[in-house]
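Fold Annotation — chain and its backbone

Fields — amino acid sequence, structure tokens

___
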Amino acid sequence: MSDKVEPTTQNDRLERLRALLSGARAQEQTRLTLGPGSYGNALMGAMLHGADRMRQGHEPTDLERLLLDAVGSVFSEEEIKAWGGVYREVAGAGGQSAVLPQMFAGRPVEEGYSVEDLKRDLPALVDEAMSMPNTQIVDPRTADREVNDPAFLAAMREKKFGITAFAAVEDRMIPDSAGPEGAGQAAQDGGEDQDGRSGPWHVRVLADNFYVHRTVGDQWGTADEIFWTAASGSGLDTHSFRSQQFDGPGKGDTRTFSTGNNTLFEGQISGDYLGLNIVCWEKDDEPSQWTEALHKALTDAMNTLNRTLALDDFVTGMLPLWISIGVQVANIFVTLMLELRNMNDISCQRTIGMGRYELAMLSQGGTTTWKFDGEGHHDLRVKWSGAKIPFAEGYLRCSVRSGSTWQTPARLPFRTITTPALAVHGDRLHALFLRPSDQVIMWTSMDSSGTWSPAQPLGGDQSWYAPALTSAGGVLHYAVVGKDDRLWTRTYTPATGWSPAKKGTGGWQFAPALATYRDQPWLVVYGLDQNLYHAKNGPWTDWQIDNLGWKVSTHVALAEHRDHIWRVAMTPFHFVQLLQTSYNGGGTWALRDLTVELRSSHAPALAANAGTMTLLIRSTDGSLLAADHNGSWQTARVVPSAAPAGAPAAAYYNNQLYAMYLTI
């Protein structure tokens, strides 16, 4: 389909903007994207408010300037100031704008909207963004199931854009790409990190080809003229791309990008973040320079906001914020494209955000495919070129608290790739972790003198996730979600050693959680259906679904305390909150108040001893915090000198609290 686009004048665009803000007019695609007066249009409101402030002689705030500079790449300052006048006219009319949040309706021109204001409003923005069916955070290991979720694809087709972030949760596989497969633990304990593992790395992400499931012209009986654009950023470099035009690709066709013009991104990557905004276009008669310039400018603004809001810690619980900014930028792009320029030639737009894990997976595997199902339906095959990104790994460290005093953290002689598991059995503290080279579960234990035994493989058990341990009924119980998504369990006693592995039911992800309640082992596992399940006392078949319907993005923590079993988790959408429940054998979990204010970036840990339960979290500033519960929650305090790279593990041993964590 080739649409004849009628050129617009500045007066046309002002009238279109007036009609959009007042609700008198909006194209169908704009209505689908923006919604009525939602927080999700906050950046567009900030941009227009800044335009009005600039028109009236005020200095724009940091956020207003960023957005005005972006749209100033394709519109004149005179016209942008005129937008501000239209905005003030509608906002000052006393009613609520059809598309702008209420917070801008009565905002005086003297009061700007800054990055600090945006931070204040982020919880509402995150709620809206994550409730949208065309946004998703996915587990890279189960990407085929989740990225192609039918509900997400249907929403992407309706709105013609989708936003996907690949999470890199700390309890997922982070293998050592440099080590030989199956190498012994001792071979990896002799030194610091290998040279060249910390980056940055120079890489290229290439568009290889695309496959046509459905052409844009199917409904019109016309041939497509397809081209692709991309704007991308890594926090270190930005890049823009426009492909050649592909004339007449039909259903079932595969078209290959030209070798000299297929780079979606080229530049330096620190290894923690790469964001790409990719658009599949059906060409119309309008020259493309304007749209490409706007596309790049807004994507650059998005990358700047990511850094400003401290979202470069991409692998933590801040992914929802990154997604919410992506939604905001897409809203501005759609508004300016469709309403002001009358250009309706987007087949589908996708924003893809990759963290360390997904970057390493793509660099090791070499290719991936992303769906663009909008006006047309195309599969884009992407290739990696350049340096391979290593998966993160590091040493285990241990912080020990005696009474209220923490000892200096000690580095243990074990390299690992996940959160460890800790449990006391008999007179020893047992620890499990994943060996970097082959993801084999390793087992070590410590005696009362503080001496750790040499680490040994636990059979041949392998996993993408951290294992779990607890001691109950005179037996040490172990569980792990294997690479086949099944639950694998073993038991141990000093007299008999480890039992053979038992293969349980499938359909699980993330690390399991084990704890002892009334001398029975309890197990909580997260299903591929995104529900929590619990079972008790083995053989782990009588699964009960969580009655509270918790939705989490990593493992939970369990502990017995005051005749209850307690469960704590970090929410996926509200990274500043923790969920807490307890269970007293009555059949359902009951919500409890977590009265201490904590900002957690990873899954929490719980440990209990003699009436005291301790919660440990990695704070969003990278420190380790500990809060005790002795009938009520006490103030959380920083664990001195502890700098965990992921979630901690914890156990009480000989009346001392042991906190163990990965450091990189």
